[in-house]
Structures are given as C-alpha cells and as structure tokens.
Specification:
250 residues; twelve-stranded mixed beta sheet; mainly beta; 0% helix
C-alpha cells in the first residue's frame, strides 16, 4: 500500500498521511492534518490546518458529463478549497470547484458536488447529497440521507431532517422549455424542514418557518409559520419559545 505524494505538493508540519493515499500535483495541505488510508486528493486542492480526512475519501474530483446532461461544459474546474479544522468522514466525495470554510463536519458517504460554497460550522450528515450550484450558509444541519437539489440556496441556522427530498425541474426531464425554469429550493435563515418532506421546485421556506414531517411543499411558506400535510397548509404560528432569536445562545 504505497503512498504517492507528488513532488510539487506541499504538506504542513505535523500532518500525517495514511498508506495507499494519493496526493496529486500542486496540492497544498496545512499543518497538523490527519489524512487516512487510500484518500485521493486531486490536483491543486487546497486544505487548511487541522483538517481530518478519513479513509477512502476523494477530494477535488472533476465531474463526469453524459451526452444527455444539461451541464455540457467540459471545461476543467478550479481546485477545491477546504478551510481550517474541518472533519471529513469515510467514503466522502467532494468535487472540484467546491469552496468550504472553517469548522465544517461532513459525515461518512456524503457527496458535495461542484460549484458549491459552504460557510462555517455546518453539519453535513451521513449519506447527504448536495448537488451542484448550491450556496450554503453557516451553522446548518443536514441530517442523514437528505437531498439538496442543484441551484438551491440554504441560508444560516437551518435544519433539514433525514430523507428530505428537493427538486428543481417541474418538467421532469421533458420539453426543452424546462431549461428556462430550473430553480432549486430556498430555505431562509432559521428555516426547518421535518423528516421525509418533499419540497417542489422553486419554493421558498421563509425565515423561521417550519415544515412538519411528511409534508409536501407546493407553495412558498411565510416566515414564522408551521405548515403540514399533503399538500402543505398553514397549521399554526411557530411558538415564541422556538424562534431562532430566542435560541441563539443554546
């Protein structure tokens, strides 16, 4: 299990790299990092200090392009950037042109696609998929196996429960008209989405709004309201004690 570190790569003091890992050309790894076994870090990737990357993870992967894909550009994407003190689990794939700030946790088997930005202190749970062209703020929680579709925006302090599904295509891959209307979901600051919800394309969960478990969101949800059911309907106001402004210190 020979480790390969390209001669152009830069590795900081105190950093350890496990057997079988491949560190490609012009990679920069900061100080006091821990790189596991059989990790692949693609060319040009920049990793900050104090980062842990567990076994069999791939950082900086270039995307594949099917002839049928709506994303047809074959342009080489910019290298991935990982901030300081991030924890990245086993079997994670983080694509090229992903920019991640400090103190993020990305759990085992998660996938973060190209052209994604993440702020700081996010938790990306086991098996989560964040698709391309998404903007993620800070201090969000994405629970096990939730799916964030392309062209989505998630602001700060949001919660997305397990098995939440989102979509960006009302035409379901038919009719070229769909190319003009692709739009992911938006979750504003403090928005929360319960387990097994479905959010349809282009819908907005406004500030401090709550979607109850199992709901189907077919309309924008006003701030500080709870919606439930299929299709989702107004249920009641979010209790004062549950508003983000009353919980930031907890």
């Amino acid at each position: 299990m020979q480790t390969h570190i390209d001669k152009t790569a830069r590795v900081g003091t105190g950093t350890t790299i496990g057997s079988g890992s491949v560190i490609n050309e012009n990679v920069s790894i900061g100080a006091d990092c821990k790189i596991g076994y059989h990790v692949v870090i693609h060319a040009g990737t920049r990793i900050g200090d104090g980062v842990r990357i567990d076994d069999h993870t791939v950082i900086g992967k270039q995307p594949m392009r099917s002839p049928r894909s709506i994303f047809t550009s074959d342009k080489q994407m910019e290298p991935t950037e990982i901030g300081n003190d991030c924890l990245i689990g086993t079997g994670v794939i983080i694509y090229a042109q992903c920019k991640m700030e400090d103190h993020n946790l990305v759990a085992d088997l998660a996938t973060i696609r190209e052209n994604v930005t993440l702020g700081s202190y996010n938790i990306v749970g086991r098996g989560v998929a964040i698709e391309n062209f998404c903007t993620i703020g800070s201090r969000n929680k994405f629970e096990t196996n939730c799916y964030i579709t392309a062209y989505s925006t998630i602001e700060d302090y949001c919660f997305v429960a397990p098995a939440v599904a989102t979509s960006n295509d009302n035409y379901m891959a038919r009719d070229k008209e769909r190319y003009k209307h692709f739009k992911g979901v938006t979750i504003k600051r403090g928005g929360r989405v319960g387990v097994n919800c479905t959010i349809l394309p282009g819908k907005t969960i406004n500030e401090d709004a709550v979607v109850a478990g199992g709901a189907v969101v077919t309309k924008d949800i006003p701030a500080e309201e709870i919606w439930a059911g299929n299709p989702g309907r107004h249920f009641r106001a979010v209790p004062e004690t549950q508003l983000l402004k009353n919980n930031l210190d907890k």
